[in-house]
Amino acid sequence: MRIPILKLQDYLLVSVQIELDDQTAMQFQEDLLNKIHESGATGVVVDLTSVEIIDSFIAKVLGDVVSMAELMGAKVVFTGIQPAVSMTLIDLGIHLKNVQTALDLEQGLVKLKQELEEK
Amino acid sequence: MNPEYQDILLAHSNDIIHRWMNELEDSKLKEYKSTISDEMIEQVNREFVNMIFDKLKNDSSRESIEQFSERIVNLGWPLGYLTGGMQSFRSICIRTLIEKIDRHDPETFLQVMDDVNQWVDPIKNELIDAYSSNWSNIISLQKVALQELSAPLIPVMDGVTIMPLVGTIDTDRAKLIMENLLDGVIKNRADVVLIDITGVPVVDTMVAHHIIQAAEAVRLIGATCILVGIRPEIAQTIVNLGIDLDKFPTKSTLKRGFEKALEMTDRQVIKTNDHDDKVVDDIIQSIDKE
């Protein structure tokens, strides 16, 4: 199962609509980096509204994606993390310190725009 | 129950009731009596004894027993009133029966005892059950009420919400606070959440840890947390304990925190009517002219 990555002008939009397992997450990491390379996007919004479970491995993969994308010159914002997911992550001691977050897709795009203008 | 005994009991019911009431007069209830009027006691006693006799005539339902114990709970009378009342009632019944029956062999005694016990004990059990379930009802209602009070979230304007915390925070409450906070942020689409700890008497490492966790969780779902209401002594303990609160902004009062929140959401408070200032300006100008 692959997660579709959509291009919108300079940004990439990813809406994760399935439960992430280890393999999907790794596949997603690879796909996203390739897509960033292909399109030369400067910002990525990953929407996690319909994701109910994030375990420590998935969290690590997502955190890594952010660092990797940053290396390739693209900012990543996660949006729509569910309260329950956020609580589990904190309980597990995963703080995702390098990750920017926003309430929803709309605010995610606004945040991305702000960040890119600052640079 | 042996119909013979039943007839005797019913025939002498008035006598039994009279003796029972007299006995209750001297009983435990005395300690509580000072606050209760005599008529009230009389009335409740009568209800009590009627209920027991109804049961003997087999036309009493469980409902009436429940109603009665609910009444006792509401009146705030002790459980001892019910159990003590039932005990003395039992002994009076046994005594009356034995007095009225001509046979005096041990066999009959035992039978009388058994019969009366079979009649009285179930009522006693049901009363105690009903009484205690009434209590637990009250307790669970209070628990719910306490929870509702424990972590309210108040949306004050678009994108800004406040959670005032009052009282000590333990692990259970911290969990509830976090859940309410996160759900509230999503529901109100808040950008900034102010956690007001003015009413939290002690902030130790555990409480600070919970607050930091809540703030981190809020950041993950895409909002910002501001901790406000930090009193001097709390600032002291936080620094002395070496707790690191650098990750999110802190302010001394809710007012300052709110200003910061406005700033973060690109807003500011503007006075719409500066009439007063104008008056002062006019006066100053007129003085200048002179």
TrEMBL record, chain A:
One Pfam family of this chain: STAS
InterPro entries: Bact_StressResp_Reg, STAS_dom, STAS_dom_sf
Transmembrane segments: none
Domain STAS: 1-112
CDD domains attached to this UniProt entry: STAS_RsbR_RsbS_like
Name used for this protein in its record: RsbT antagonist protein RsbS
Source organism of the structure: Aquisalibacillus elongatus
Organism phylogeny: Bacteria, Bacillati, Bacillota, Bacilli, Bacillales
TrEMBL record, chain B:
Pfam families, sorted: Rsbr_N (PF08678), STAS (PF01740)
Signal sequence, start to end: none
Keywords assigned: Phosphoprotein
Keyword Metal-binding: no
Residue stretches making up the STAS domain: 150-261
Lineage top rank: taxon: Bacteria
UniProt GO MF annotations: heme binding; oxygen binding
Record protein name field: RsbT co-antagonist protein RsbR
Species annotation: Aquisalibacillus elongatus
PANTHER family tied to this protein: RSBT ANTAGONIST PROTEIN RSBS-RELATED, RSBT CO-ANTAGONIST PROTEIN RSBRC
UniProt entry tagged with the keyword Membrane: no
